[in-house]
Amino acid sequence: MYYIDLAVTGLSFGCMYAMMAVGLTLVYGLLRILHVAHAAVFALGAYLTVIVANATGSIGLGFLVAIAVTPLFGMAIYRLLYEPLLGYRPDVPMIASVGLLVLMQDAFRIAFGEQGVTFKNNIYAFRIYDVAGIRVNAVQVAIVICAIVVFVGLHLFTTRTRIGIAWRATVSRPKIAASFGVDAIKVRYLNFAIGSALAALAGGLVGLLNNLVDPVIGYVVSYKALAIIVLGGLGSVRGTLIASLVLGMVEAYGTIFIGSWLNRDGIAFLALIALLMIRPQGFTGARAA
Amino acid sequence: MSAYEISLLSVIGLNVILAVSLNMISGFCGQISLGHGAFYGTGAYAAALTMIATRNFPLSLVCATTVGALAGIVVGFASLRVRSDFLAVTTIGVNFLFTGFVRKQGWLGGEMGISGIPASGLGGNGNMVMILLFAVATIALSLYINRSWMGFAFRAVSEDENAAATLGINAGAYKLAAFGIGTALAGLAGGLYAFFTQFITVDTFDFIFSVLLMAMVVIGGIGSTFGVVVAAIALTLLPEAIRVVNDYRLLVFGGLLVLVIRLAPGGLAGLARRLTVRAAKP
Question: How much is the CA Rg of chain A, to the nearest whole Å?
Answer without folding.
Answer: 18
